[in-house]
């Protein structure tokens, strides 16, 4: 059964952009209530998506299609199945709470309205990624997430660190976007479709094609840059320069999850091979361990959480690579669990920073008495991160262990990596939950106080959501996990989630081992941090420093090229342009025999071109030609600059008369206008110089410029003669004559050609003229600054 058509699906990704445009105006009108008003947009999307859960749980799908570029068969196609529904629900639900949090977090900020607009656009871009069925539409929204994240990370543009983090994220993720576009084009050429829903049954076609390796490389690079996989992970911690609401949204449900979604979506088409599994499991496992160690090395709470996001992204990629019903179900569960607890923890950290004035874990302690609500929210989120029973994180951990229990040595090695990575994440969760809130009270830069309710509602609801979801495993498995897993695996999946715990099986013992390792990591956190920092210092470089070196080298190289090519000498610029013109004229003529028509016209050795044997010009035509030659000679022999300018006008006027005599009045009129303007403008410009002087020029310049002028003039003349010497092809004029009235409704064919058939060309010319006119107006209206007293005294006689 095909998908159900619903035009509202396409509006889900458009609505946040419309609200983003209105956000600054709403903020001016409503002030502090703007965030509550704007939060209604993601809230409405969330409610609408909730109504689709029963349909998707029963195996249904929904689609919408908007005509985009019909000439090339491109449509904006949107598609909702189990996978896109889970991601869209997470984006809209967390986005609603983030909007409320943002309004309170940036209370009193002069650019709060702009920030809310950026956040809504960020949300719309991510919704577009997960709802798009067309690969081109996905690429478009993919790049929009890059642009909007750049604006959000660099929101506090006065700080160099914020600007650097924004540029770094933009550069790396944009490189991935280019790989995504290349992969989409190759897939379209191989399969004849842009739509991912149509690719589900074409896995064998892609696997057997000679382009499978190229496709795999393109999509893996795109996903790895976006989802911060090792060694392309270093941009994500630097993105913490963004305000806390951005970090909470970016790390939980947007931006970094786009790569995970892409890998999950393309699994039916590109997955199932040994190289797919090896690459995802290998890079995912390394990223998991690296991120967990990176979190233990940090002391800033936001940086700690950022590093755990890297680890969690690696875990998600690893699970997609494992595949199978257990691995994919664990991926879906862990995605939801991670989104809930990570957004909640970031919001709680923002509340700590707001209330205590610092995020340094080494100078925090005893905040639970003065910030009890923040502590409760942090504890609820941390419990799901730890994976204790009756939380959604527990079921995610059980599923990933169940898929590897009793496997071969590869499965055993992967299981060891999972237990080690999860154990370190448990230790980090204990650090975030205990160190700032329990123990002795430590003096802080600000007297600790609770954040506003809008900043606490989000972490409380998200932390509670992780517990409630863990109490409803049957509903969670049947209505969300199973449909999403089926969309990834391409076959029906039965859920086996239940509240019943197997206390005798190996899974609980693996969980206990993970918790025990986490407690050990927590107790030895300071020693581990010291050891890791010593190792980092001994290493001396990181991927971050390599990026800086590459960017510095690129800037130096660009500067050298600029100094070489843009040296500021206008005469050399013109010489290069005309030399290139000469090559462009004579190169094809010589290479393709374009001068073969220059053959003797008679047996007497007359080598004149046949075209010149036509009846001679009339006397008045000779007169106009003589006037043109006279003007040219006057320009060359002009004793002063003023005479040269006027002589140039004479030569141009003669050229306009030639156009008029040979039946081109429109062109003649244009030439007259150009000549008049040229003379006037040159006269104005030259008033700053002495017009009664003659510019001395070395003989070498005369030879260079004269040679170029003669060669280019001869080339243009020969090319025109060659064109006129050929047979006349009337197909294009006939087409213009036949279609100018019925299609363009114009009787002046020249005007129709300029406005309709060459519409974009003419539009570009108008834009150039308008830009030049605006620049001239700005220069003419620029007032000279009054001279300082010292300067006036110096200028006085």
From TrEMBL:
Membrane spanning stretches: 6-26, 33-56, 76-101, 113-131, 137-155, 167-189, 209-225, 246-264, 270-292, 304-322, 328-352, 373-392, 412-432, 453-472, 507-525, 572-599, 619-637, 642-662, 668-687, 708-728, 762-780
Residue stretches making up the MrpA C-terminal/MbhE domain: 703-784
Primary localization class, coarse: membrane
InterPro entries registered for this protein in UniProt: CPA3_Na-H_Antiporter_A, MrpA_C/MbhD, MrpA_C/MbhE, ND/Mrp_TM, Proton_antipo_N
Keyword field contains Transport: yes
Cell compartment(s), UniProt: Cell membrane; Membrane
Membrane topology summary: Multi-pass membrane protein
Domain NADH-Ubiquinone oxidoreductase (complex I) chain 5 N-terminal: 72-115
Keywords: Antiport, Cell membrane, Ion transport, Membrane, Transmembrane, Transmembrane helix, Transport
Signal sequence bounds: none
Keyword match Transport: yes
Residues forming coiled coils: none
Annotated MrpA C-terminal/MbhD domain residues: 627-690
The NADH:quinone oxidoreductase/Mrp antiporter transmembrane domain, residue ranges: 132-415
Protein name, as recorded: Hydrogen gas-evolving membrane-bound hydrogenase subunit E
Organism: Devosia honganensis
């Amino acid at each position: 059964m095909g998908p159900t058509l619903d035009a509202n699906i396409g509006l889900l990704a458009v609505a946040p952009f419309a609200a983003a445009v209105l956000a600054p105006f709403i903020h001016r009108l409503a002030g502090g209530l703007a965030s509550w008003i704007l939060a209604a947009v993601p809230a409405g999307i969330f409610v609408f998506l909730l109504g689709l859960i029963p349909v998707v749980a029963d195996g249904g799908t929904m689609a919408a299609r908007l005509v985009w570029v019909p000439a090339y068969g491109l449509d904006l196609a949107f598609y909702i199945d189990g996978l896109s529904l889970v991601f869209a629900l997470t984006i809209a639900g967390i986005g609603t709470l983030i909007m409320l949090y943002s309004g309170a977090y940036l209370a009193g900020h002069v650019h709060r309205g702009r920030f809310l607009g950026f956040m809504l656009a960020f949300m719309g871009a991510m919704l577009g990624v997960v709802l798009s069925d067309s690969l081109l539409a996905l690429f478009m929204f993919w790049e929009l997430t890059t642009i909007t994240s750049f604006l959000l990370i660099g929101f506090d543009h006065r700080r160099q660190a914020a600007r650097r983090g924004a540029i770094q994220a933009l550069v790396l993720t944009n490189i991935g976007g280019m790989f995504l576009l290349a992969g989409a084009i190759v897939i379209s050429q191989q399969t004849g479709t842009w739509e991912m829903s149509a690719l589900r049954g074409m896995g064998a076609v892609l696997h057997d094609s000679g382009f499978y390796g190229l496709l795999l490389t393109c999509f893996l690079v795109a996903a790895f840059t976006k989802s911060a996989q090792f060694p392309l992970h270093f941009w994500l911690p630097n993105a913490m320069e963004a305000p806390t609401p951005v970090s909470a949204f970016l790390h939980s449900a947007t931006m970094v999850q786009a790569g995970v979604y892409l890998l999950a979506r393309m699994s039916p088409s590109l997955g199932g091979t040994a190289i797919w599994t090896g690459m995802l499991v290998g890079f995912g496992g390394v990223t998991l361990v690296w991120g967990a160690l990176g979190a233990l090395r940090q002391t800033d709470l936001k940086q700690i959480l950022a590093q755990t996001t890297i680890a969690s992204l690696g875990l998600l990629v690893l699970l997609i690579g494992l595949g199978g019903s257990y691995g994919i179900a664990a991926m879906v569960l862990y995605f939801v669990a991670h989104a809930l607890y990570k957004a909640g923890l970031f919001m709680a950290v923002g509340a700590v920073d707001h209330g205590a004035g610092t995020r340094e874990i080494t100078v925090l302690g005893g905040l639970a008495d003065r910030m009890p609500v923040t502590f409760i929210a942090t504890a609820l989120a941390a419990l799901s991160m730890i994976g204790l029973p009756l939380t959604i994180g527990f079921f995610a951990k059980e599923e990933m262990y169940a898929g590897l229990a009793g496997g071969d040595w590869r499965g055993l090695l992967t299981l060891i990596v999972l237990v080690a990575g999860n154990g370190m994440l448990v230790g980090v969760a204990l650090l975030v939950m205990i160190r700032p809130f329990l123990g002795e009270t430590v003096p802080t830069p600000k007297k600790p106080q609770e954040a506003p309710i809008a900043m606490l509602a989000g972490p409380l609801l998200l932390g509670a959501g992780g517990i409630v979801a863990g109490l409803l495993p049957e509903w969670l498995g049947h209505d969300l996990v199973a449909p999403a897993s089926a969309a990834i695996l391409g076959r029906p999946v039965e859920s086996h989630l239940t509240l019943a715990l197997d206390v005798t099986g190996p899974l609980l013992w693996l969980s206990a081992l993970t918790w025990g390792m986490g407690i050990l990591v927590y107790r030895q956190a300071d020693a581990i941090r010291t050891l890791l920092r010593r190792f980092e210092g001994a290493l001396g470089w990181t991927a971050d420093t390599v990026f800086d070196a590459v960017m510095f080298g690129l800037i130096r190289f660009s500067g050298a090229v600029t100094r070489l090519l843009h040296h500021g000498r206008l005469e050399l610029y013109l010489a290069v342009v005309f030399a290139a013109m000469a090559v462009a004229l004579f190169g094809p003529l010589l290479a393709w025999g374009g001068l073969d028509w220059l053959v003797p016209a008679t047996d007497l050795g007359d080598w004149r071109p046949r075209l010149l044997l036509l009846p001679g010009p009339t006397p008045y035509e000779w007169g106009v030609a003589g006037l043109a030659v006279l003007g040219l000679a006057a320009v060359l022999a002009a004793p002063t600059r003023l005479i040269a300018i006027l002589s140039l006008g004479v030569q141009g006027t003669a050229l306009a008369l030639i156009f008029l005599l040979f039946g081109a009045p429109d062109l003649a009129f244009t030439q007259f206008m150009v000549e008049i303007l040229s003379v006037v403008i040159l006269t104005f410009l030259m008033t700053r110089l002495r017009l009664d002087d003659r510019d001395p020029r070395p003989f070498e310049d005369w030879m260079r410029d004269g040679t170029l002028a003669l060669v280019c003039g001869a080339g243009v003349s020969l090319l025109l003669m060659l064109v006129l010497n050929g047979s006349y092809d009337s197909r294009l004029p006939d087409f213009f004559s036949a279609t100018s009235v019925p299609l363009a409704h114009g009787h002046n064919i020249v005007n129709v050609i300029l406005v309709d058939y060459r519409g974009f060309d003419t539009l570009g010319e108008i834009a150039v003229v308008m830009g030049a006119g605006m620049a001239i107006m700005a220069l003419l209206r620029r007032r000279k600054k009054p001279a300082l007293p010292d300067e006036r005294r110096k200028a006085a006689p």
